[in-house]
Design a protein that fits this description.
Layout: H1 2-32, H2 39-56, H3 61-89, H4 94-116, E1 130-133, E2 136-139, H5 140-162, H6 164-174, H7 176-181, H8 186-212, H9 219-234, H10 239-255, H11 270-284
Antiparallel strand pairs: 1-2
Length: 296
């Protein structure tokens, strides 16, 4: 039982990161119909900005987190003006935008390799500090992940449900033409969507780097596939579904290694387990757990 509780706690940590990353992907797809393949590299960018503040400038982790959020949000919004908006105005379709996202991912990754180098990086945190909660043991990094992730999830829920921005985003997701006729500032809402998605990517990248302890620019692509799985599992375009899908996948991935399950799956197969669950769910509910696409 103690092993099961420990794995569930680890799954909550993993799922929280996946949920935050997935909701950013869902927001962008729901509003703009862009499958942002570069989202994983947004996470890496945020992690390296936090590293520069924490290690390069000897800043506190709080300052590093704020810098990661602000810088990644600015990157995402800036790319809207220099890349995505010009492409949309020239009539680029979904497939063309997807190819552009792949190209952007490669460019960002190699720029980060050039600037940040390929050697593993570590934050200035005590990786040996652990806390016992009965049979569950969590590191300081894991506790930070749970705290920040929970706060971010609550904040996203409030923004979508209670603010004018959330209402405008839902209107754009349902019918962009009708939203514009109704007086919604489409361009402003799109920029704010990118800011929110980018900020969430910065948080998720920082948290994943904390859990990994030592990270390189390649971790974004490895995390991107489970994030996409969480998006599809929750219902493509559903922000709430992405949150739930991320948490569920994180738990399933960690619990799959439980010894009581015929010895458990090797840890390296956790992503395989995630996609197996995704396939099984979609066989019975193709639209995902939370229903139709583009429903914020």
């Amino acid at each position: 039982m103690s092993e099961l509780l420990q794995l569930a706690a680890n799954g909550l940590v993993t799922g929280s990161i996946l949920a935050i990353g997935a909701v950013g992907v869902s927001l962008v797809y729901g509003v703009l119909r862009i499958i942002n393949f570069a989202h994983g590299d947004y996470l890496v960018f945020g992690a390296y900005v936090a590293f520069a503040v924490n290690v390069g400038w000897n800043g506190h982790m709080v300052a590093a987190a704020l810098a990661a959020v602000a810088a990644t949000a600015a990157l995402a919004a800036g790319l809207e003006f220099v890349l995505w908006r010009p492409l949309r105005r020239r009539g680029a379709g979904v497939f063309s935008l997807f190819i552009a996202a792949i190209g952007l991912a490669l460019v960002l990754r190699h720029v980060i390799f050039l600037v940040g180098e390929a050697r593993p990086r570590r934050y200035d945190v005590d990786v040996f500090q652990v806390y016992d909660f009965g049979p569950v043991r969590l590191s300081q990094s894991q506790l930070i992940v749970i705290g920040i992730a929970f706060s971010a999830i609550v904040l996203v829920g409030l923004v979508l449900a209670r603010t004018m921005l959330g209402k405008a985003m839902r209107a754009l997701a349902d019918n962009p033409a009708l939203a514009a006729v109704a007086g919604i500032d489409v361009d402003r809402t799109v920029v704010l969507t990118w800011l929110l998605a980018g900020g969430l990517a910065g948080i998720a990248g920082l948290l994943e780097a904390l859990v990994l302890n030592a990270f390189t620019p390649n971790f974004g692509f490895a995390l991107l596939l489970p994030i996409f799985a969480a998006v599809v599992l929750g219902g493509v375009g559903s922000a709430y579904g992405a949150l739930v899908g991320g948490l569920v996948l994180g738990l399933v991935m960690e619990l799959s290694t439980w010894d009581a399950l015929a010895g458990g799956a090797p840890a390296v197969y956790k992503p395989v387990v995630a996609f197996s669950v995704l396939v099984l769910v979609l066989l019975f509910r193709p639209q995902g757990v939370f229903g139709r696409a583009r429903a914020l």
